[in-house]
Specification:
FMN binding; single chain; mainly alpha
Amino acid sequence: MVAVLNRWVRHVPPWTLYLAGLAHIVWLFWLGETGGLGPEPINALERALGETGLKLIIVGLAITPVMKVARINLIRFRRAIGLTAFLYISVHLLVWLLLDVFLLSEIWADIVKRPYITVGMAGFALLVPLAVTSNDWSVRRMGAAAWKRLHRLTYAAAVLGAVHNVMLAKTWAAEPLTYLAVMIALLVLRLRWRTKPRSGNAGGMGRARQGPEPVGKGMSA
């Protein structure tokens, strides 16, 4: 069954994820325009975009555990998942900047005075260099080792995004806490695998065939 799934996945082009992400964003805006997001469409749009971006980061973090445990290889989609997550989070930020706050003075005041916004902006700032260098040219230009070190920022950005989501809820809501718990569990798992001594070539068989790793090496544990 796993072998069949892996063969099927190889026929799915990663660019379909970009199209699906763009279509979903357009659909969310259409819902907001037509009253499908409730009485506070801007707030609902912000939350939907931010939460979808966070979910995609979690999916990216889960790719390596899924490959190691279930032997399902989704590595070829990791770059597309990481960049699509960045797209959602960028649009989430733009909605807040242009539709919610708008005034420059109020934007800066919110960033300084509201801790959940400060945390969210810090997470976004860490994602920017990762998105910019999410291409094979950057891997060659920087060198694989330096590129991998830079992309470890994904870990911090992921945690900051999950904390931002918890703080935004302003209550101990189950869903944001679940996202944070899953994020931390995946990162702890990644850390354990990094520090665990490898035997033979078992730990590197998958990577040997992958070539330069796509965006968000740190977005998969």
